[in-house]
Design brief:
The complex is a heterodimer of chains A (about 110) and B (about 110).
Chain A lengths: L3 E4 L2 E4 L5 E7 L5 E8 L3 E10 L2 E4 L6 E3 L9 E3 L8 E8 L7 E2 L3 E5 L1
Parallel strand pairs in A: 2-11
Antiparallel strand pairs in A: 1-3, 3-8, 4-5, 4-9, 5-6, 7-8, 9-10, 9-11
Chain B lengths: L2 E3 L4 E5 L4 E3 L2 E3 L5 E7 L6 E5 L10 E2 L10 E3 L8 E8 L5 E3 L3 E6 L1
Parallel strand pairs in B: 2-11
Antiparallel strand pairs in B: 1-4, 3-8, 5-6, 5-9, 7-8, 9-10, 9-11
Classes of the chains: A mainly beta (about 110), B mainly beta (about 110).
Chain lengths: ~110, ~110
């Protein structure tokens, strides 16, 4: 079954902890993205990567970090520096500029 | 900077009524514009893009560069159209920027 897989579906984090959200795709897409979805604020771009071993900050990168060591994987780490991490996180990928983006099912992160 | 604005957070219509979801954008170059839809318990998916100029599920959207708008329209709404709709712009380096989203509810 081709597509984008995010794990886990639900994640609980204690304050002060770092957590890593997984995103894997088998679509052979070059570009991958991380978005944060909050009610009333739409999707906001956290980080994106156009190619392996390269990535750029999006609009709300503070408190987050990413890596792109493999084409199919783009994990997102939510660090303790992120002041309001409770949100729904979406990963996406596409093949090249201006083409359809495919999304994962999302990870809901809750800080307890 | 690229920006997408969807002025309506909530939109309610009755079945069979026309529906229009508004989208305005800000971008200095030639944008690629999209509408994405998220049905209940499903992942976000592409509904249509302006370059294809096609109708999907009865929805159409026309890019108006003069008004910098890309409104989504359907002449007769159906209950199954109830969902969250996002307008998106693809600009520099393929960076995809989304609007705030509009929740459409179609009442029977």
């Amino acid at each position: 079954d081709g597509g984008i897989t995010q794990s886990p579906k639900y994640l609980f984090r204690k304050e002060g902890q770092n957590v890593t959200l997984s995103c894997e795709q088998n679509l052979n897409h070059d570009a991958m993205y991380w978005y944060r979805q909050d009610p009333g604020q739409g999707l906001r771009l956290i980080y994106y990567s156009q190619i392996v071993n390269d990535f750029q900050k999006g609009d709300i990168a503070e408190g987050y970090s990413v890596s792109r060591e493999k084409k199919e994987s783009f994990p997102l780490t939510v660090t303790s520096a992120q002041k309001n991490p409770t949100a729904f996180y979406l990963c996406a990928s596409n093949t090249a500029l201006n083409t359809e983006a495919f999304f994962g099912q999302g990870t809901r992160l809750t800080v307890v | 900077a690229q920006r997408v604005t969807q002025p309506e957070k909530l939109l309610s219509v009755f079945k069979g009524a026309p529906v229009e979801l508004k989208c305005n954008y800000s971008y200095s170059g030639s944008p690629e514009l999209f509408w994405y839809v998220q049905y209940s318990r499903q992942r976000l998916q592409l509904l249509l893009r302006h370059i294809s100029r096609e109708s999907i599920k009865g929805f159409t959207a026309d890019l108006n560069k003069g008004e910098t708008s890309f409104h989504l329209k359907k002449p007769f709404a159906q209950e199954e159209d109830s969902a969250m709709y996002y307008c998106a712009l693809s600009g520099s380096y393929g960076k995809l920027t989304f609007g705030q989203g509009t929740i459409l509810t179609v009442h029977p």
